[in-house]
Design goal:
The chain has helices at about 5-25, 25-35, 40-50, 70-80, 90-100, 105-115, 210-245, 260-285, 290-320, 330-340, 345-355, and strands at about 120-125, 130-135, 135-145, 155-160, 165-170, 175-180, 190-205, 250, 250-255. With about 350 residues, the chain is an alpha+beta fold. Helix 4 packs across helix 7 (about 210-245) and helix 5 runs antiparallel to helix 7 (about 210-245).
Length: about 350
Amino acid sequence: MDFALSAEQANLQRTVRDFLADKSPETRVRQLMDEDSGFDRAVWQQMAAQLGLQGLAIAEEHGGTGFGLQEQAIVFEEMGRALFCGPYFATVALAAPALACAGGQAASNYLSAIAAGEIIATVALAEVVAEPVGDGWAIAGEHALVLDGHIADLILIPARSGVGVSLFAVSGDAAGLKRELRATMDETRKQALLTFDQVPARLLGAEGAGQNTMRSALDVAAALLAAEQVGGAAACLAEAVEYAKVREQFGRAIGSFQAIKHVWTELLLEVESARAAAQFAAWAADCAPEESPIAASLAKAHCSQAYSRVATESIQLHGGIGFTREHRTHLHFKRAKSSELLLGGISHHREQFVRRLGW
């Protein structure tokens, strides 16, 4: 297990970082925060056509490039650093792994469309009810907070059917589906209320296999979210350190005070240990699948804590200005808090970690 980046991985990191510096500067992030769609469709298509980011970890047989989660985690770390706005997490970290786990021709077709940048996908994580209707299925129920649910072309739903939980696919323009954008704390990550009123749905994989499918897919998503949190924490820490070099009190830069040095040394160690946890989770998914569930919960809990602590301390360092909407630290703080709760909070993943260890 070697966490040093290979030449190919380092090139991927540089390419993505340069792309995001050009396409997702803070000014553009703030513009997209105020737009209902929350993303730039031209950039989305560029990501697929020029960089192949949507299909990076999708198997070649489904139209992707067949890289592993370690390469995918590099992309998410850079997106966390840039506070990237768009449906990349919902599509690539949530929907694509669920489709890959479900298997079958329908899932393969959807994966090919994702890899080509042709569709935006998401997962509605709350269970709803599915009933057989004629040759197909119909979904009833609602989910209050679906990532990018208002713009998704494909919505995957674990729904309870006659033999248990099954995974279904619903088209974004299906009859009976109502979508409403919700106001949330983190404006960089849009969420929507979805109401299903006997919406036509397509069964993916075997009936009753949805719970195992989603459990595996959510472990992948947790590992990738951890990588994104590391990127955000590292960027927030770097910005605060730069501020401490120029902000003066009593005729000295505040970064020269011993108390400040102690705090930021501790935070640096926390960010680096979080990066190690995220890298281990990605490595386990690729090379030691039996350890992947444990590693994913460990990474999600530790990276959530690290990002939230760095963002909170950064606000303290900046003083009142740090919590104003005009300051970048404010955006990191809200992203940190929303990511902490996404896919389960710190206590949930710590409990999962202990349970999966068999303690």
